[in-house]
Amino acid sequence: MDVAREPLLTDRNPLPDALDPRIAAQLRFVVEVDRLKTVLRQSPLAAASRRENDAEHSWHLALMVILLAEHADEPIDVGHTVKLVVVHDLVEIHAGDTPLYDDVGARTQEAREQAAADRLFGLLPGDQARELRALWDEFEARETPESRFAKGMDRLEPLLLNWMAGGGTWRTPGVTADAVRARKAHIGAASAALGEAALVLIDEGERRGWVRSAERTGDGRPAAPPA
Amino acid sequence: MDVAREPLLTDRNPLPDALDPRIAAQLRFVVEVDRLKTVLRQSPLAAASRRENDAEHSWHLALMVILLAEHADEPIDVGHTVKLVVVHDLVEIHAGDTPLYDDVGARTQEAREQAAADRLFGLLPGDQARELRALWDEFEARETPESRFAKGMDRLEPLLLNWMAGGGTWRTPGVTADAVRARKAHIGAASAALGEAALVLIDEGERRGWVRSAERTGDGRPAAPPA
Predict the structure, then answer these.
(1) Which of A43, B49, B69, B118 has the fewest CB atoms within 10 Å distance of its CB?
(2) What b/e sequence results for B131-157 when a residue is b if at least 16 CB atoms lie within 10 Å of its CB, and e otherwise?
(3) In this predicted model, what pLDDT tens digit does every residue of B56-69 receive, in sequence order?
(4) A–B CB contacts, 8 A cutoff, strictly below
(5) CA B155, B159, B160, B165 torsion: positive or negative?
(6) DSSP 3-state of A163
(7) C-alpha separations of B91 from A157, B41, B116, B146, B225 in Å
């Protein structure tokens, strides 16, 4: 599907012509991103029997940044890091969520997300389109301390939800404790203390049988660990 | 119900003892606030046929602060304002949402929210309990430019959702266009330009019959406007 041709939510109910044009463009975007509340993730909520959506997840990361920034190994600007997590999943409005353990989806993820970013940020006045795109690019590139910490939170939050679910997506066929540890390396890259906490949770989950210790090959030997 | 005696989510599945105690307290809080995703508001989503929850709403406000801060009439610190909106509804985890047009609920709201704040923030290490409480108090008091802007966004977001729903909660019995204008005064107090935009939307909604023009008394005269 060509995302550039999808109708906007405000096409159903256009904003009044009497609005200032810049404010109208901003409010059309604000309405359009309501769709993030409908993009479902794999993670099960701890507080209810349903999956989490991207808007809830983004809010949760923002709160985690505020609370856990003290554990960052490099100094970070908390306000800027919160901005990164607030915008980091917006492109999934058109590109969809790519589950953490979906290697096939991951191959087309970048192209899908770039097209989605062009479409979505293009709704904004040019200066703000560039500003939001820059925040998203910064998050993806992980070249700044703030983006590394944001990415660490993006991995720590579902880990906590999986813990509360007694495994959650760790029980996906083919996933092993070592694969989980590999995907969670972003946490330790942002904060040694939080990386250590993540390992405590994964180790205990493995002991309890919530995630398999190793993928067995046909001859009973463990398979090679994930890259 | 005594909120201080309610079990925590992590009581069902305690975090491992091997965690650093400060990190364990922070992570217990991070898990507990998952409940914000289950607190339903009156606002209907624009992108789906269901009501919004507080976590989604808080995320939406954070994005609006980033995009609309340029319209603030007083200079604001965007990062700090985002922090205010991320924490502003946390106490509703125990106190529940008080609908904007529920005058009865509003009378007990403060006491319920104070008890909820004691309980929830008390889960955190003392320094962070004080920090989050201070953010919430700042939002509630509206004595800083940042808190006034945050409050304005808190009123603008449901206005946009009601617009998209062709009235939404404006159709609540007893609500009139003037009552809506009175509740939206917080928007104009933060930004004249956004306050003007809000009035354009309400005026047009009134013209379309999405909200009643006046409450009629038994003798056919309009009732007194709301305080």
Answers:
(1) B49
(2) bbbebbebbbebebbbbbbbbbbbbbb
(3) 999 999 999 999 99
(4) 174
(5) positive
(6) helix
(7) 21, 14, 5, 20, 31
Q: Give the pLDDT confidence score for residue B53 in this predicted structure.
A: 98
CA B83 to chain centre: 14
Task: In chain B, count H helices and then E strands.
Answer: 11, 2
Residue A111 makes CB contacts below 8 A (sequence gap 6+) with: none
Extract the tokens encoding A151.
């990415």
Dist CA B7 CA A222 (whole Å): 41
What are the Cα distances from residue B127, in Å, to A44, A77, B76, B121, B124? 31, 19, 25, 10, 8
Q: Are B215 and B174 in contact (CB under 8 A)?
A: yes
Chain B contact present for A46, CB below 8 A:
yes
Inform me whether the C-beta atom of residue A190 falls under 8 Å from chain B C-beta atoms: no
A195 CB-side CA count, 13 A: 18
Q: Which residue of A lies nearest to B205 if distances are taken between CA atoms?
A: A16
CA distance B167 to B75: 33
| Poorest-pLDDT segment among A131-145, A158-172, A207-221, B11-25 | A207-221
Distance from CA of B223 to the nearest CA of A (A): 29
Q: Which pLDDT belongs to residue B107?
A: 81
Report yes or no: A83 at the B interface, CB cutoff 8 Å.
yes
Half-sphere exposure of B147 (CA within 13 A, CB side): 13
Q: Measured between CB atoms, does A51 come within 8 Å of chain B?
A: no
Which of residues 136 through 165 in chain B touch A, CB cutoff 8 A?
Answer: 157, 160-161, 163-164
Bin A145: left if φ > 0, else alpha if -120 < ψ < 50, else beta: alpha
Task: Determine the Cα–Cα distance for residues A54 and A42; give it in Å rounded to an integer.
Answer: 10
Question: Residue A13: which of B12, B56, B163 has the nearest Cβ?
Answer: B163
Instruction: With beta carbons under 8 A apart, name residues in chain A contacting B161.
Output: 34
Check CB contact under 8 Å for B34 and A45.
Answer: yes
Average pLDDT, chain B: 92
φ, ψ of residue B216 in degrees (nearest 5): -90, 135
Taking only the tens place, the pLDDT of each residue in A96-125 is 877 777 777 778 888 888 888 999 999 999
A182 touches chain B (CB under 8 A): no
Identity of the residue in B10, B46, B204 whose CB atom sits nearest the CB atom of A34: B46
Q: DSSP letter string over B51-70?
A: EEEHHHHHHHHHHHHHHHGG
pTM tops 0.95, yes or no? no
Closest CA to B164 of B56, B65, B48: B48
